[in-house]
User: Fold these one by one.
Assistant:
Number 1:
Amino acid sequence: MYWVLEHNTPFYGWGHAGRVESTAMAVLALAAVDPTSETRRLVDAGTLWLLQQKDRYGVWYSGQATVDVLSALRKGIDTNASRNPDARLAAAVNGKAVPLGGGWSPTSDAPAIIDISELIQRGDNTIVVQNGSTLSSASIQAVAEYYIPWTGAAVTEATRPGDSDALRLAVRFDKTEGRAGEEVRCSIDAERIGSRGWA
């Protein structure tokens, strides 16, 4: 559940980031009033939607939206249950247990970043996270980066004089082979050659 943004936010948010910001503010306002079953339902639904909008960098699209969402999450989530020091999580990748000792704690506000690349295999992978105790809520995000080698035919230039949308493209790499995580420098030249006066 989210709250529709009718105008820009006070910090000029708009579009999806503005919707995230306005929903966070609505959750904050609802969490501040006396709780009723209907208010709790709205807060829970808005909190769940906010958790699902996190981008691949673990934030919410803009600085102001991220600040508002984190404030809303602190108010919206049942903190008494979620901060149980005896809470336990169990995680596995492709059936192999993932050690969660890398900084994860049910009483900490800081995220724990756990590298599972050693457990990933070619093709489909299965990640399972299970609640092993009374943990009432948690936010978990999996981020994947991969590349697919180019297997297509070499691109050839084909332009006709007078084509206003004709382009000339050139790409150069400082190396054509490398290992995962290794830097490769790429130079790209793009010229519009179909219109008079290009340089």
Note: The mean pLDDT is 78.
Number 2:
Amino acid sequence: MTSPSSAQPTHNQFGWLVNEDWQTDRPHQPRSALTMASARISSLAATPRHNLMLYAFVLALLLTPLARGGALKAILWALVTMVVAWLQMAVTANAGGSAHHAILLWPLPEMVIAVSFAAASRRLGRAGVPVLAAVLVVIMAGSLLVTNEYYWRMRRNGGAMNWTDAIFRLSDYMRNSQAKCVFSVDWGIMDSLRLLNQGTLPLRVGTDPISKPELSSDDREFLAKMIGEPQHVFINHTKNFEFFTDVNAKLVKYAEGAGYRRQVEAVIPDSNGRPVYEVYRFVR
């Protein structure tokens, strides 16, 4: 288990990075001049969620016949590369379903736009530069408005899922945990804690081997040591923030069958009051 791509859909780009209004019971109100200006721009722009890059890409394709020589070859190379990369994702199980898969195509669409627009502008003679500059200003303005929307919603509603600011409170709490081992029972916890604590926490993967369909005798022996040590601390996301759903529940159920119960030591919320992490131990 290395990625949550198969566990969490990414249909909503804002819901993947920042929380929506309907997900936030206690939104932050704008207080500084910057956040008030950001909120005002968001309202005036009708809360834009998409930039103009798709339209720019389609326009670039329509203008491709105007390109010649090296420019045309560069456009065709980028298009062929994108098609090949997309086909590889399309025929691979559990690939292409998350944002970091689509990002593998970058910056090829932008390359097509840049080369095609530049080639088309040369056909306009002296008017080419100001026309191209005007088009670029419109495209950049659309992207800046979406970036502002992200910023305002982040300040208002907080980060979603793995972008939550609760990780800072969790990091502060774990510095005083006195744990022999800290097991992460979900994706998206270990690397952030390792970074924030500069590698000083004794972090371990807690999703293996409990996530296997069947456990071997070695797996059971490992789990016995894992849950049987009182100085072992476990961290999981709360239900609404889980990436690998039910893995933590499966571990708790297994521990209960072995004569242990989960003792929650802390519930860590984000700055909007949503409970994000649970820190616990197993006790007999």
Note: Residues 128-157 form the longest helix (30 residues).
